[in-house]
Amino acid sequence: DTEVTQTPKHLVMGMTNKKSLKCEQHMGHRAMYWYKQKAKKPPELMFVYSYEKLSINESVPSRFSPECPNSSLLNLHLHALQPEDSALYLCASSPTSGKKDTQYFGPGTRLTVL
Amino acid sequence: GQQLNQSPQSMFIQEGEDVSMNCTSSSIFNTWLWYKQDPGEGPVLLIALYKAGELTSNGRLTAQFGITRKDSFLNISASIPSDVGIYFCAGPTGTASKLTFGTGTRLQVTL
Asked: Which of A1, B7, B59, B68 is 20 to 30 Å apart from A28, CA to CA?
């Protein structure tokens, strides 16, 4: 199994809603990532988890709250988002967080904030 | 922060043509990655390069790690319609986990 899965594929939410994005991998990878991608732009790193511990937070607003319940799962909890947070949210994983470890991406969740 | 600039920004080519694109940086990279992204999907890894001067192929795709370690090149031979998409170069920067993506090259293939 060389796949990273993400649910849901699409999500529409209001600014007062609370929702969660989910990511799962069964490759035994110990590093997992959240990226945000706006239209016609490259992905931008948000968070990195290494061995289930948060190792990098790229100054992401607190309305985005990541969680890594175990080595296979990564969640992104969303609360009080703004319309400018609408984007494609990508999850990725790699064997470890080493420089030579290739990151494999999921298909993304297309988020629209109304 | 470090920036990766890709050129061309977009290309319109005919099926069967060869394609060349490149990625340049103002600083040295020790790893170069090439990804392809289809609309509404996540990036898919095409080729990974780990050594200056390295030339690696994956089917019709060939990528090279520039000897200055500040650039990389991707060639696609005999393009087909499914080659349509955005091609990103990427490399780890700063701490090990941070992957910086290039600006992307959008490829359109006409029949």
From this structure: B59
Chain A CA closest to residue B44: A105
pLDDT digits (tens, 9 = 90+) for B69-107: 999 999 999 999 999 999 999 998 766 578 899 999 999
How far is residue B48's CA from residue B38's CA, in Å, rounded to a whole number?
A: 19
Query: For residue A45, which amino acid is it?
Result: L
Q: Assess contact for A78 and A64: CB atoms under 8 A.
A: yes
Give the residue from A58, A88, A42, A37 showing the smallest Cα distance to B6: A42
From CA A76, how far away is CA A111, in angstroms rounded? 12
Q: Considering CB atoms only, which of A56, A99, A105 is closest to B43?
A: A105
B111 touches chain A (CB under 8 A): no
- The mean per-residue pLDDT over the stretch B14-39 comes to 94
